[in-house]
Design a protein that fits this description.
- The record marks 152, 208 as: Positions MEP for the nucleophilic attack.
- One of its GO terms (biological process) is isopentenyl diphosphate biosynthetic process, methylerythritol 4-phosphate pathway.
- This protein is 34% helix and 23% strand.
- By secondary structure, the protein is α/β, with parallel strands linked by helices.
- A seven-stranded mixed beta sheet has the order 5-4-1-6-10-7-11, sandwiched between helices. A two-stranded antiparallel sheet has the order 2-3. Strands 8-9 form a two-stranded antiparallel sheet.
- Helix 2 (56-66) links the parallel strand 4 and strand 5 (71-76).
- Helix 3 crosses helix 5 (166-179) and helix 5 crosses helix 6.
- It is globular and about 50 Å long.
- The protein starts with a strand and ends with a helix.
- The structure holds cytidine-5'-monophosphate (C5P).
- Cytidine-5'-monophosphate is lined by residues 6-9, 21, 50, 77-81, 84, 103-105, 208, 210.
- Cytidine-5'-monophosphate (C5P) binds next to helix 3.
């Protein structure tokens, strides 16, 4: 299976002046934990890291330190996640029929989750890892007034990995550009194009590291696993 890792973001919401994936978590750069999980997932054979060229020297030295055995390519990132994934899709080897997309910032996803998604995408066109929502979710307007309360049993929190048929995902991205759609995950492009996307049960610990608190939680979870 081919895996694309969008890793071209900044450290803005983290309050950092650099790519948050290069910050240290438990004595390793955050992205190193993501890469170690992908390396340990037997289903993954090729990894494309989509990142800003200014970070490539650091990424190369992280890859060398980890002594990763899988084929790894660095691909130039875009100004949004959506654009970065689009760049990644153009760089996929021509024999890639399916692809997994996994945010570099989700450094706690396990090899088992990668393998489950790799297996499941052989039997459908699109899927995402997701977990049932525990909180009651409110839809709120710009004035802070609640507009509605969606039924909780129908709500799932989207994670990555997300898996797709490559040809379909490329088409959906092109349609997204044509229509000016702005989305925060790839499944949303499939949905907007009217293509079915399935759920694979994700992991409660598969957090997207966004804030300094998330970094502290990741430290704790990684130390608990060791
Ligand atoms: O900012 P956020 O954590 O929501 O981004 C999700 C993922 O998308 C991160 O792994 C980040 O590095 C990546 N990203 C990207 N290109 C961008 C912005 C974000 O690859 N321009």
């Amino acid at each position: 299976m081919h895996l694309l890792i969008p890793a071209a973001g900044s450290g803005k919401r983290m309050g950092a002046d650099r790519n948050k994936l290069l910050l240290q978590v438990r004595s390793k750069p955050l992205i190193a934990w993501t890469l170690l999980a992908a390396e340990a997932a037997s289903s993954i054979s090729w990894i494309g890291i989509v990142s800003q060229p200014q970070d490539w020297d650091e990424f190369k030295s992280i890859i060398a330190d980890l002594k990763l055995k899988k084929t790894i390519e660095l691909i130039s990132g875009g100004s949004t996640r959506q654009e970065s994934v689009y760049h990644g899709l153009q760089a996929l080897p021509s024999n890639a029929a399916q692809v997994l997309i996994h945010d570099g910032a989700r450094c706690l996803a396990t090899p088992d989750l990668f393998n489950a998604c790799s297996e499941a995408i052989l039997y459908c066109s699109g899927l995402i890892a997701a977990v049932p929502v525990k909180d009651t979710i409110k839809v709120v307007d710009d004035n802070g007034i609640i507009k509605s309360t969606p039924e909780r049993k129908q709500l799932w929190a989207a994670q990555t990995p997300q898996g797709f048929d490559v040809k379909l995902l490329k088409k959906c991205h092109v349609e997204g550009i044509r229509q000016g759609w702005e989305v925060t995950d790839d499944a949303a492009l499939f949905e907007k194009c009217g293509i079915e996307v399935r759920i694979v049960l994700g992991e409660e610990t598969n957090l997207k590291i966004t804030t300094p608190q998330d970094l502290a939680i990741a430290e704790f979870i990684l130390s608990y696993r060791e």
